Amino acid sequence: MNSVQGLLAASVISIQNSCFIYPACQNCFSRLILDSRRFNCLKCGCTGEAKDASYRYRLSLKIADTNDLFDITVFGSCLDPFFGVTAENLQRYIQDFNQLSGEANTESSTRALVQAVETCFIGKRFIFGV
Question: pTM, whole model, 2 decimals?
C-alpha cells in the first residue's frame, strides 16, 4: 500500500475540500465515527473513548503536469512538515482556539485554515509519489 510506483512532478491547481484532518483508526486508518463520548471504526470494529481518538492528515488536491489533470489525495505524516505540526497537534490547537474564542460555530477557524492551506499549496510545484 505504501510502495511508490512512480513520481509525478505537478502543480497544485486547487484544494478539493476543507477537511484536512480526520479522526483515524489506529488499526486500519479508516475514518472513525465519533460521538460525544466514544469512537467506532466501521471497517475493523475498533472502539474507544472519543478523547483518545487519533487524527490524521488527508489533503485532496487537483494537480496538473504539462499534459494532464489529476485528482489525488495525500495522507498521513508526510504532510507534517508542511503544516508544521502533526495532525493530532493541529486538531488540538483548533479545539483549544475554538474553546478560548468561545465560538460555537467553528466556521471562522476553518476558513482561516483553508486560506492558509490554499496559500501554501496552490500554484506550487511538488513531486508526488504515485
Answer: 0.84
